[in-house]
Amino acid sequence: MNPVLAPATSASLIRGEVANLPLYDPGADPAEVAALSGSRRVIKLSNNENPYGLSPAVAEAIRLSVAGGVSRYPDPTGKRLAEAIGQSLDVPAERVVLGNGSENLLELLCQAVLDPGDLVVTQAPGFSLHEIFPRVMGARVVKVPVTAAFGFDAAAWRDALAAGPKLVFLANPCNPTGVMLSADELEQVVAGLPESALLVLDEAYGEFARANPEYPDGLAALRALDRPWIVLRTFSKAYGLAGVRVGYGIASDAALIQALDRVRTPYNVNQPAQDAAIAALGDHEHLANTVRRTGLEIARVTDRLRGAGLCVVPSWTNFLFIDTGCRSDWVAQELHRAGIIVKAWREPGYENFIRASLSTPEENDVFVRCLTEICAKGQL
Ligand SMILES: *Cc1c(COP(=O)(O)O)cnc(C)c1O
Fold it and tell me: Which of 63, 80, 180, 341 places its Cα 20 to 30 Å from the Cα of 194?
């Protein structure tokens, strides 16, 4: 006989892992900040987007794709885009996987690989989805702290890797610090990888860092590794296509891609996104312009904020991690009143930090002026 069960409620149905998850923080809603500040134009620096927008060639590709009709399902294999990516990187298309943003690939990797209780290693401060997706699967997440100077802590990484993680999430450059790992540091992670581990190298900001000759090319660094690995990249940041949702991974072998293909929803990348990404790969000039202008602004704004006495972490991305010297929740709120959205950092030890992506020179000047005024007031 069946035991008498209490009737289900939504709360009783939710898995413990899910009920206890932190909610992803997308930053403040621009419409709300517009209402609060009374400004018609909100300066949105919270999501590391590209202020210069997408390439005109990509806009045209999207227009044509939509005009061609969206009543059919997209190509479930993303064949043309996977081939274009493979060709641009000299990798066979069967080792390329496409995602609805590279976030989708982080999620699929966790679903394909992690059993409850498995260990995952990543960095702190870090990208929240490197923690949230493993926890959904019931995995344990150990976050390796950065050094006091926001750098790579070789000894702490060695210990964490020795504990036998199944999955290692490493972002280079790192989010939220913007710090770039050197070839030597990346090599230390690779050398310390236990037999059990799959290395996920998240290069969401790699296009910006590649302007630095010291930036290690992840694909080249991992090519000889006799262990499974995957390098993740995205069209959301330097290519200016965050709203379109398309990212990709290049894996050590086709078997890993086939596993992800089994887990993913079959039409995870829509056709306008596939067509946009193909066009984006072809417009080298737009990418180079974005990277050049972003680099100039990163250097200029870093100098100005440091000149005003703020601690700014050296960044090889399109954002800055800034110690405001006061509670970042309060700073962010004050910035909202001025119509500027940044992300107040909440990880333990970093409650005085904000992460702000840069925009055009004009908007960045407004940001610098408001932030330095607010910090001067807050530090009194
Ligand atoms: C933005 C970001 C991503 C992915 O963004 P998608 O829009 O999903 O491609 C992945 N990793 C890090 C560290 C990021 O900052």
Answer: 180
- H-only helix segments in the chain: 10-13, 16-19, 30-37, 56-67, 79-89, 102-113, 129-136, 154-162, 183-192, 206-209, 218-222, 254-263, 271-282, 284-307, 328-337, 361-378
CA neighbours closer than 13 Å in the CB half-sphere of residue 173: 27
Start-to-end CA distance of the chain, whole Å, equals 71
Is any atom of ligand 1 closer than 6 Å to the C-beta of 128?
A: no
The pLDDT tens digits for 207-250 are: 999 999 999 999 999 998 989 999 999 999 999 999 999 999 99
Q: What is the pLDDT of residues 291-307, one digit of tens each?
A: 999 999 999 999 999 99
Distance CA 276, CA 291 (A): 19
Distance 37 CA to ligand 1 centre (A): 29
Distance 309 CA to ligand 1 centre (A): 31
State whether the beta carbon of 249 lies less than 6 angstroms from ligand 1: no
Q: How far is the CA of 204 from the centre of ligand 1 (A)?
A: 5
pTM of the model: 0.96
| Residue bearing the CA closest to ligand 1, atom 1 | 204
Q: Name the token pair of 308.
A: 């005003």
Question: Is the N-terminal amide bond of 173 cis, ω within 30° of 0?
Answer: yes
Question: Whose C-alpha lies nearest to ligand 1, atom 14?
Answer: 204
Separation of alpha carbons 48 and 50, rounded Å: 7
